[in-house]
Amino acid sequence: MLNALNLDLRDEYAADCANGVRRWNQALEDAGLEERLYLPHEGFNRRVGVYAQHHVSPEGEVLSDEEWAARVGDWLPSAQDRTAVAALMVPEYDYGKFAGWIAPPKTGINDQPVEFDYVHLADEGVA
Question: Model confidence over 93-121: pLDDT tens digits?
Fold first, then answer.
């Protein structure tokens, strides 16, 4: 039963992702762009389940070990890619500022200013 439930949840998740991709592709089309997004085959880069022992391309093509090794860099980030992204992910701790990868909101919660002091910590001696 647990396997059936897991499969059903995974199918629902994939359907939700497909819906999001359809919306993004509509936005691309509305913007006059030709690029389109697509979801990879369910077996792509799987390490568990029925596909775990196979190398499957994003298009669903079953590949040999040699073919996978030759093409995996076209599909998955390299160690260098991960290092470059990690260098961009610099946290921001100053009040009212946002990390570089987060777009500041136009307004705060309930139309408060973005800099609004939402949280007040009690002094140690105050209950």
Answer: 887 788 888 888 888 889 888 878 777 77
pLDDT of residue 97: 83
Reading the block at residue 31, the tokens are 């913007």
φ, ψ dihedrals at 44, nearest 5°: -65, 125
Q: Is the pTM of this model over 0.85?
A: no
Q: Where are the beta strands (DSSP E) in the chain?
A: 55-56, 62-63
The first and second tokens of residue 81, run together, are 């890619």
Residue 55, classified by CB atoms within 10 Å of its CB into exposed (0-12), middle (13-18) or buried (19+), is buried
Structural contact between residues 17 and 37, judged by C-beta atoms closer than 8 angstroms: no
